Structure formats: C-alpha cells, structure tokens
Write the structure tokens for this entry.
Amino acid sequence: MTEYNIGAKIKKLRLAKKLTLQAVARETGFSPALISQIENNNVSPPIATLSKIAKFFDVKISLFFSEDEEEYRYEVVRRGERKVIPRVISRAGTSQGYSYESLSFRKQNKKMEPFLLTVTEKAAEENTYNHDGEEFLFVMKGTAELLLEDERVILEEGDCVYFDSSLKHRLLSRDGSEVQVLAVVTR
C-alpha cells in the first residue's frame, strides 16, 4: 500500500484559479487553516470533505487519486497498489478514527468511487458529514454503527446500506474494535 499526495493537486487547482486559501475556505465552508493543512499534507480530509473540495473545483474526486492523464477502459488494482489516505482529520482538527484506501485511481471520469474504509477506534466525536451523491456501504469485518440523520443503524458483518449522501451521516465502530467497510460513493 502506498500513501498518495492529494494536497499538491488541491493546491495546483487553487493556484490555477488564482484563489487564496481564504477564498476556497469561504466557498467550501472549511477554515483557511484546514485547507492549508490539507494542501501541505499535514492532514488528510474525510471523503465528504474531499467531495466538497472536488465539487467546488468542478473536478471528479478521482483526480486526487490519479497518477496520470491516460484514459483506461478498465483497471485492476492489486492489494499492494491501493492508495492509502491516512490521518483523516475533521474540520475541528480532531482524528476521525479511520483511514481509507482508494480502490480505483487510474480510471478517469468514473461515475462512482470505491473505497475500503477501516475504522480503528471508537471516535470521541460523533460529528456528521453530508455531500452530493449517493453511498453504498458493505460491512466486511466487525460491527459498525451508522449515524444517519437522527437515527443510529447497527450494521453487522455482511450487512449493507444504500443512502442519499445529502443526509448527514457518519460511520463508527460500534464497540471500538476494527471495522472494514467497502464504500462506493457517487458524485
């Protein structure tokens, strides 16, 4: 597994549009400090944050995971080739207790983005996120708790859920043990 640098791509998009950190922060709802930390790869944003940044710049989220501009008709990603996004940090600057791996980063102009989420601890905060699109979650290991608007949905190994991503949501470990989830997100 290799770590992928998304900060430089976000900074390149910002500079190409001649925007300040403050302008991007104002339009996305994030703080200038968080945008700067993301650009400098000090923190990795949750998928919802990355989705909002992609929408603001009018690019597909896959741009942040791509290695080149070549168009592929299909893609095979081997276990050791996944792009790991560690140190996921909230707007408030706190750890979210999970990491994710991009399972497709060469294919451009995709209609969906597959990720492997690994929740490694019970989060201290239960803040939620929302973004455009839809999500499909399949619990591969452990017991998850999905905060979905005002509901708490318990998902056991083998369970899945499909929902509109505009609903405020957050995936947590039910008891603090490791949970692995296949997540497919559309924009």
